[in-house]
Amino acid sequence: MSQFWTDKARDTVPYVPGEQPKQIDLVKLNTNEHALPPSAAVLDALRNVSGDMLRRYPDPDATALKQRIAEDEGLTPSNVFVGNGSDEVIALAWQALFARPCGVTTVDVTYSFYPVWAQLYDTELRIQPLQDDFSVDVEAMNQSQGTLLLANPNAPTGLALSCAEIEYLVQSRPDRLVVVDEAYQGFGAETAAPLIARYDNLLVTRTLSKTWSLAGLRVGYALGHQDLVTAISRIKDAFNSYPIDAVAQSVAVAALQDREWLRHASATVVKARDELIDSLRAMDFDVLPSAANFIFVQHRTRSGEELFGVLRSHGVIVRRWNQPRIENFLRITIGTEEQNQRLLVALAETL
């Protein structure tokens, strides 16, 4: 290690993203990208990018994008914060709102970036085990005094809390911040966003990566009381005044305006998800109910490690974690009809 590394750089264990393979003939079902290409309006917006847009600095407040999001959610722009993907949004919110003496509570099987941020920002992270069926123990979570951080739907399980359950956590302790990471909102889970008008201790984060098929664009946002948004904005402006470039702002607005594409694309993924679940259950897989664009499965007799390797040898990549409780599970992104069939054929040949 370099003599110039700080203790923080030396000690931090970074997040490891899903593999982005170089081979073009692989069926990539490991990082939850959308199965369909983005809206035609997105491509039109890209074609209309001008040299002047690139020559000038972008709007540091992303005014048009905030306005679009606010209109869709029945809020005001002061309730909206935008950033370079929801990962950056949560990281900035962590510095602005989470890093308090009472710490942060999340669950034991969830997005693996949360422990990284806790370490990076010197935050005590309390872990509440999921129940045997991988659902969230709401009553146990409600005992926490610190910030509650919940992915909803959860990843990698795909299970979701209802809006009523989220509201119970929010209203039980008005002095406690509840953060709901809705990265996979749009595939069947209820959103907590309508609660923002009534509660000042709720922050909802979203991304355009999954539901809007814009993982390559890197746009995310948070919804919350204006005091929460102001705090995050202060941290953002102390770090990078221009996190969303002009092209991303223009394309994101175009995407959000195409509600018909959203309805069609989400319905297509949900239909494919339900069909894949039926097929896998017929092959002796246990499949958790999913409200996301992925499913979490384990075979009744074959190990996750074995099946992961077999699929890879057939040119199909899925996600697996070598950790307690879930070492035999595979997380499978919902792909196109052709991709899902290649997955099923590979499994059928093996099983």
Polypeptide structure, described:
Helices cover 38% and strands 14% of the residues. It has 351 residues and is an alpha/beta fold. It has two domains: 7-38 and 260-350, Aspartate Aminotransferase, domain 1 (Alpha-Beta Complex); 50-258, Type I PLP-dependent aspartate aminotransferase-like (Major domain) (Aspartate Aminotransferase, domain 2, 3-Layer(aba) Sandwich). Strand 9 and strand 10 form a beta hairpin. Helix 2 (40-47) runs antiparallel to helix 10 (246-257), helix 4 (63-73) packs parallel to helix 10 and helix 5 packs across helix 9 (226-237). The N and C termini lie far apart (46 Å).
Q: Which strand-content bin applies to the residues?
A: 5-15%
Helix content: 25-40%
Gross morphology: globular
Helix/strand order, N-terminal first: HEHHHEHEHEHEHEEEHHHEEHEEH
N/C terminus separation: 46 Å
**Order of neighbouring strands in the sheet with most strands:** 2-8-7-6-5-3-4
What would CATH call the homologous superfamily of the largest domain? Type I PLP-dependent aspartate aminotransferase-like (Major domain)
From the 3D structure, determine the CATH topology of the largest domain. Aspartate Aminotransferase, domain 2
Total beta strand runs: 12
Radius of gyration: 20 Å
In the residues, how many domains can be counted?
Answer: 2
Q: Overall pLDDT, averaged?
A: 95
Q: Which runs of at least 5 residues are low in confidence (pLDDT < 50)? A: none
- Secondary-structure arrangement, i.e. CATH architecture of the largest domain: 3-Layer(aba) Sandwich
- Give the CATH class of the largest domain: Alpha Beta
